[in-house]
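So, is this right?
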Amino acid sequence: MHFLVQTKPYPEEALESYLLRLARDNSYDRYSELADILWQWLAEQDHELEGALPLELSKVDVYHARQASSFRIRALKLLAQLADVNAGNILALAWRRSNFKFGNLAAVSRNELTIPLELLRTNE
């Protein structure tokens, strides 16, 4: 299985934004439609990865992984194969959790920039 349209990620793009573009470029109306197909495909490819890629866009990034982000990273690497892009390019889009807080708000950081989670888009 490969995507019909091989969407390339932009260097400073968020993972969620890339997945929205990937879904749209491949004629899915929503990320959730693409996620459902990917969920089934991942389960067929590697039984351990069933559920490693959430159906909700707001929970797809690595810092949301509850138990082990290694499964999420393996799922993103397989996604990169489907999109025919370098897995490192996809993983570079992931935000990293920061210990920094804005009052009582959690934050994420990327390229030395720290942003409150409240300011990130979490829906389509």
User: Anything to note?
Assistant: The chain has a mean pLDDT of 78.
